Input
Amino acid sequence: MDQLAKDNERPIPCSLKLLALVLVPGLLISVQFARFSNAASTQSILQTSFSYFEEVDAPRIRSFLGTSDPGKDGEAKNNSSLIQSVSNPQSLESDQAFASQMLHEPIPIEVLIQHNTTCPEGLFPIENTHLPRSVTHLEGRRIPKIIHITSRHRCATSAVIKNVNKWRFNNYSVYFHDDNALHKLFAHPHTRNLFPTLREGLKCVTAGATKSDLWRYLALYVYGGIYTDIDNSPTKFNGETIQPDDDSFFPLEGLGIMSQYFFASSPGHPLMRQMLETGVERLKLIPNVMINNPAQSTGPGACKVGFIKFMAEVGVETTGYINAGLYVGANNRSVTVVGKKENSREYVDRGGLGDGNKLGYYKALGIKHFSESRKGTSPKGKISCKEHLKRTKGTDKVANYKYVKKFQKYIEVNTTMKVWSAALSE
Output
């Protein structure tokens, strides 16, 4: 992999010049952001100001993200392809817009995941590990040392707590996001500006797994870091596996596509955008809004198709079934793929928690697998996502229908999902 990185001369995503005059904490500072392409041509300088505030131990200055020009002819096979870059002004404008938007994070992550949780007897809260940015966001490192985990509730069984603790690597922050944290990020105006179609897509989310799928792409696009399912355990993967110049990181899963249950990315990566937008597009096409089928709509299917689109932007055709290697696609951003489909547990064991412990956790928390949503459904009188969006135009009403045999059709349940409604109306 080192030789491949050398051959391809992967560009640092941005060159940051920060000229700041700090009068007192809380005042505005001036910023000049200059980005250079790997052809050594200076891009336009973004000039802006942003509010400065401090962490406990060091000034928290926002990190700004930029990229070089997009590459072409780049699907890697057997770690041997040489990828050259070409210019795309449209992509550069898009990246500059993102860099400008990122000057104001939607919600500081430590605020997003703050909690005051009291768990019932026999359950325990999954605690966060919050380290200063001077530790997690090292200069010259693309993917921050942050691990994101999600589930409906923060309370968990002792087996889950033990499994989560396996991810607490040295010098890594670990953040647990419950449903409330997900809703905050989804509903924030910053998110709506970045992904205008997401708001509609969320109205058709009727399975927790679907919500989790869309959120993980969004969280890594905004904050960067590592995402892992709560029942995963690290095997070969450790705190040093991801290299400073890795732009995104995926092990191969058993199907021969990039894993969607574990991956990592730098902030603002166009692959995360493609996966999120693809998931929303596919969700809107489902024929029965009460059956999301996340595996096809927002999960592995969106991951694979998102990668296909990411590579297509530089004229590279792929089926999404790939080998380990370095892939450079849209905006000259890269994807590092490791492992073999025949040994999908080489880096991460997606069944590390164990089936018995997983079932015990689901039972204790009242969590149902998305496949159970099909119970009580019928192909008769079904309501598609598009139909639901038409019926609820101008609102943020989430689909909530139940099949009534007497009428042989789906009837809207006369209750509201208060948490969703409140979050989406903020």
Observations:
- DSSP finds 15 helices and 19 strands in the chain.
